[in-house]
Design a protein that fits this description.
- It is found in: Cell outer membrane.
- It holds the Pfam family CarboxypepD_reg.
- Belongs to the TonB-dependent receptor family.
- The structure is a single chain.
- The protein is mainly β.
- The strands form 8 sheets. The protein has a 22-stranded antiparallel β-barrel. A 5-stranded mixed beta sheet has the order 8-15-16-11-12.
- β13 (171-172) and β14 form a beta hairpin.
Length: 764
């Protein structure tokens, strides 16, 4: 057994204290002491790699052949861009997933832990709404408990949310509620824009959000934080981590408690006691442990439990008041074994179990009558075997195969139903010459409901010059309708609407008509959707340039074109005398999302960083344009001006696009560090152009006379003050300083002011 010891210095020969040292492939981690020294003991003979990072310095990577104990000295150069945390974590893949996300054919955005801290965000939706090309919206049929995400025109239905590479369950009408996820214990977030079915399967037709949690403890340490403010919002977090067995193992644990009183964005029609976003409490606990059982093998275990309780009151008058309560529970368990063979082949075996359960009950308060009750459960068991192998320096293969069994139970369904899936994938990275990297991916998914689908992707990166990188990618995706879209009958008493699966809509509407409950029905749409829901397919295309003229400036521009066949959309098929609207699901034969994004970051001074991001988006159902051009049913109906009463024949220019999509979105950020006071100021503006909320003029497509959410600006500010050698941090958060609200933005509160502190203890 051998030893590596060394010292880390700056250019003047001064010791760098608390620098992070990572030893690969063992992933041993330590910190330098007050003299800049570090050491690793009980090592085997072989070739290792040292990675060194410290805030304010450029990171170092150095190969180190080890045949006997050795001592080294490392010198770090100061970084001009010292305002942001320098971390090698961004370049490291997840420890429990061999897929290298950053080499995906589709564009990838990485959000670091430090960026999240500087935003002062508490929930995942708050992080997402500040990213270029990403919008946070409330799904119309999902109700106010469905705060979803939209990426390059793809709604939340098409974006897979994963934690440590494993998919999360629990969608409301296909929409995953991002506010369920606390940002506690997050190391980084990987966002893939565009078809990602090649990497993750069906639900990633439009993109993926992969949350990587903390792992690999550096030293025994603990962190506690507390925030309190507007709407009685309280966020409390406790984290702890420690290595054990001489750095061969590590344990990380975190717990979070969050509560808020909710709010009402529709005071014009609802009484003061009402809320359009419910008060709720949320508890989440997560733990992870890893242990290197042999020289080449590491075993890992992860567990997560979260529960959210919410209660909502909708009162239209003294006599018409309804209260609904809902409880959501998440359980996630996983185990993995990572082994590297002498040939260089790396193997990853993974098992995953997750269960989501929700129970809702609503009652008319004044009458004491039960209005509705629903219970839904969903669980998945998944096994996966991954391999990574590089036969030569210029070629690398990452592949795998596996399967899952998904069971759904619901009192509204005829029986307990299951979905069985098998899959295999392969991603190849090839560098034919210096400066060029190609990525080819193939994935085959088979289900017992929609048979098999092949999802290919291809990516190309070319360094035109040392400062200019060209990127292009194309990828195919698919998405099979879930059982809720086909079979569920769901009544939301708070919002007074009914959602019926496509396979049951004809029988439900007929029963209402026979009983005299039906006030109107859209026969054309009803015949179109009834029992006819098909799997969706997409083809995503991206091209872009990344320009780094110097260490202070980075810019990126990209254009995208996503073609979707059979895109599933919510559609109104009727109304009743008991409640306002009946929704179901239909396929749009041809739809397209196209546009471009521009982002830039400029380090104006050592203390000031400026950045901006802009997206232009067109999202349209091409069948609407075809119908208008040909002058045939159903989209050839007249355009009616509700102000003047004038009517005219429609033109192609009258069609605005698909609901919830803004043409223009702009993000601006200024980050300033005032070193004498050890303070950080982070000012962000999220500017969103108007977007259509709902078709109201009865011509069945969106035109300028329909209902829109107006152009608006969300201005956010976070101020940090560090004390006691950065162990204690005081934080002031001001979100939506301009106090913008709108009745059709159910999940956007008014001005929120929070204050709090955090304390980090670390064993010296």
């Amino acid at each position: 057994m051998y030893q590596i010891k060394g010292r880390v210095l700056d250019k003047s020969g001064n010791a760098i204290v608390q620098a992070t040292i990572i030893l690969l492939p063992d992933r041993h981690t330590t910190l330098t002491d007050k003299e800049g020294r570090f050491s690793f003991d009980k090592l085997y003979e072989g070739t290792y790699q040292l990675r060194v990072s410290s805030v304010g310095y450029y990171p170092i990577e150095q190969d180190l052949p080890l045949k006997k104990s050795s001592s080294i000295e490392l010198t770090m150069r100061p970084s001009e861009a010292s305002i942001t945390e320098v971390s090698v974590q961004e370049r490291r893949r997840s420890v429990d997933n061999l897929i290298k996300t950053e080499n995906s054919a589709m564009p990838v955005k990485i959000i670091t832990r430090r960026e999240i801290e500087l935003m002062g965000s508490r929930r995942l939706d708050e992080v997402m709404k500040e990213q270029t090309g990403i919008a946070v919206v409330n799904d119309i049929a999902g109700g106010s408990r469905a705060v979803g995400v939209q990426i390059q025109g793809f709604s939340s239905n098409y974006v897979m949310v994963l934690i440590d590479g494993q998919p999360m369950l629990g969608r409301n009408s296909g929409n995953f509620d991002l506010s369920r996820i606390s940002v506690t214990n997050i190391e980084r977030i990987e966002i893939i824009k565009g078809a990602s079915s090649c990497l993750y399967g069906s639900d990633a037709l439009g993109g993926a959000i992969n949350i990587i949690t903390r792992h690999g403890a550096v030293a025994p340490q603990a962190h506690a934080s507390f925030l309190y403010g507007t709407l009685n919002t309280l966020d409390a977090t406790l984290e702890a981590e420690t290595p054990f067995a001489n750095q061969r193992g590590s344990v990380v644990f975190s717990g979070n408690y969050y509560r808020t009183d909710g709010f009402n964005t529709d005071s014009r029609y609802l009484t003061e006691e009402s809320t359009t976003f419910p008060p709720y409490t949320n508890y989440s606990f997560q733990g992870r442990t890893r242990y290197r059982i042999t020289k080449n093998g590491t075993v890992g275990f992860t567990g997560r439990y979260a529960v959210r309780n919410s209660k909502m009151i909708n009162a239209w008058s003294d006599d018409i008041t309804i209260e609904d309560t809902q409880t959501d529970q998440d359980v996630n368990l996983s185990a993995s074994y990572d082994h590297t063979f002498h040939s260089g082949l790396r193997s990853m075996t993974r098992y995953y179990f997750t269960r989501f359960h929700t129970a809702m009950q609503a009652q008319w308060l004044r009458q004491g009558i039960l209005a509705d009750a629903e219970e839904f459960g969903q669980q998945v068991q998944r096994v996966e075997q991954q391999f990574a192998y590089s036969p030569i320096r210029t070629v690398k293969f990452t592949g795998g195969l596996g399967g899952s069994i998904e069971i759904m139970d619901n009192q509204d369904l005829d029986e307990e139903r299951s979905l069985n899936t098998a899959f295999a994938f392969l991603q190849t990275e090839w560098k034919p010459i210096d400066g060029i990297l190609t990525t080819l991916g193939l994935r085959y998914d088979y289900t017992n409901v929609y048979d098999g689908r092949l999802s290919p992707s291809f990516g190309l990166q070319y360094h035109i010059s040392p400062t200019l990188l060209a990127k292009a990618g194309v990828g195919a995706g698919f998405k099979a309708p879930d059982y809720k879209m086909r079979y569920q009958v769901f009544y939301n008493p708070a919002a007074n609407y009914l959602v019926v699966g496509s396979d049951r809509i004809a029988d439900v509407i007929q029963a209402m008509e026979n009983s005299g409950e039906l006030s109107f029905k859209n026969s054309y749409m009803l015949n179109l959707v009834s029992g006819n829901l098909q799997a969706e397919k997409s083809l995503s295309n991206n091209v872009g340039l990344v320009w780094n003229p110097n260490s202070k400036w980075q810019s990126e521009v990209s254009a995208f074109y996503h073609r979707i066949n059979n895109q599933i959309n919510t559609i109104i098929v009727g109304g009743t005398t008991s409640f306002s609207t009946v929704y179901s699901y239909r396929n749009l034969p041809k739809a397209v999302n196209k546009g471009f994004e521009v982002s830039t970051t400029y380090q104006a001074t050592v203390d000031l960083q400026l950045s901006a991001g802009y997206q232009y988006l067109i999202a349209k159902d091409l069948s609407v344009l075809d119908s208008i051009r040909a002058g045939v049913w159903p989209y050839n109906q007249t355009i009616n001006n509700p102000v003047t009463g004038e009517s005219r024949e429609p033109t192609v220019a009258d069609y605005w696009g698909i609901e919830d999509r803004s043409r223009h979105m702009l993000n601006l950020k200024a980050l300033y560090e005032y070193r004498p006071w050890e303070m950080n100021f982070n000012l962000r503006a999220n500017i969103r152009g108007k977007y259509p909320f709902q078709e109201t003029t009865s011509n069945q497509f969106i035109d300028k006379y329909d209902e829109f959410v107006p152009y608006h600006v969300l201005l956010n500010l976070t101020i940090e003050k560090n004390l006691w050698n950065r162990k204690l941090t005081l934080r002031l958060i001001a979100d939506n300083l301009l106090n913008f609200t709108h009745r059709n933005m159910l999940g956007q509160p008014g001005r929120i002011i929070l204050g709090g502190l955090s304390y980090r203890w670390m064993k010296e």
